[in-house]
Design brief:
This is Cytochrome. It comes from Rothia aerolata. It contains 8 helices and 10 strands. The protein is an alpha+beta fold. The protein has a single domain, classed as Lambda Exonuclease, Chain A (Alpha-Beta Complex). The protein has a 7-stranded mixed beta sheet, sandwiched between helices. A 3-stranded antiparallel beta sheet has the order 1-2-3. The radius of gyration is 23 Å and the shape is globular. The relative contact order is 0.13.
């Protein structure tokens, strides 16, 4: 599943509880990483300009102020529409990948249903490329969509796949990516290394969300952390460089402290700014 049962969206980002319906205690891995500022101003501007230029109503806008503002409003929301559509596509691709792993583990699955869902959206190429990667690399899944928890730092998350490949335990994160003009899958963001190292640094993994049962995390020594870019034309796996894992872990912990302070400030009842008056006349 792409929406973990213990996770809930809040004003402070996605947060996790220890048991279904329980108190939300810690932020998700991606929420913590999201504390790092990312400048998307250029991309938002490009998407808005592109939407306005391609709007078929544009040629009539000069004679109608109402239509002009409607086009501006729709163009301004173009990046959000693209983001939401990409997220929905990513969910469908992740669901397919999860069910392929469940089938390989001998568990109940909906592989055909998930493939049909992709087909209905014209996205079957993602499933085809994923199947090719699965056949070539032959992973032996140990766990899929596993929820993990770290009490020491204070975060939780859900890992896409833990699998044995060529005798080595691998912690794997899938990223659904678009295709560039040369037909190549777009590259992974380096932030995936933080996501992977936070996952392998877990202390517990979920056994039963209803009962709130957890067990010690068994894969903290996994030697390979792998991000996999899933596209329509190819699948590109990349390993996190062991030489940079420690620094990425320290950076993640620092971002968690930023999240803690931001949450504390957000819950502060006192005003951050106070009025002042001129000094008395001498």
């Amino acid at each position: 599943m792409t929406s973990p049962r213990l996770a809930t969206s809040t004003a402070h980002g996605r947060m996790y509880a220890r048991v279904e319906g329980g108190e939300l205690e810690v932020p998700s891995i991606t929420t913590v990483i999201g504390q790092q500022a990312t400048d998307l101003g250029g991309w938002h501007g490009y998407m808005a300009a592109k939407a306005a230029l391609e709007d078929q109503r544009a040629y009539r806008a000069s004679s109608s102020s109402g239509l002009k503002y409607a086009i501006i409003r729709d163009a301004a929301a173009a990046s959000e529409r693209y983001r939401d559509a990409a997220a929905a596509r990513g969910d469908r691709v992740h669901n397919y990948a999860e069910n392929v792993a469940l089938r390989a583990m001998g568990q109940p699955h909906q592989v055909e249903e998930m493939r049909e869902l992709l087909l209905s959206h014209g996205e079957q190429a993602y499933a085809d490329r994923f199947d090719e990667w699965w056949e070539l690399w032959k992973p032996k899944p140990l766990a899929t969509e596993v929820t993990i928890w770290n009490s020491t730092v204070g975060y939780a998350g859900t890992l896409d796949l833990v699998a044995e490949i060529a005798g080595h335990t691998c912690v794997i994160d899938y990223k659904t990516k678009g295709t560039d003009r040369n037909g190549r899958v777009k590259p992974l963001d380096e932030k995936v290394v933080m996501q992977l190292v936070a996952g392998v640094k877990a202390e517990e993994c979920l056994v039963d969300p209803v009962a709130g049962d957890w067990e010690p995390w068994q894969h903290s020594n996994a030697p390979i952390l792998m991000g996999i870019a899933l596209g329509e034309t190819q699948v590109v796996p990349q390993q996190a460089n062991p030489a940079v894992l420690e620094k990425n872990w320290y950076k993640f912990c620092a971002l968690k402290r930023v999240w803690d302070y931001n949450r504390a400030l957000g819950e502060e009842t006192e005003d951050s700014l106070m009025p002042v008056v001129p000094p008395p006349v001498q």
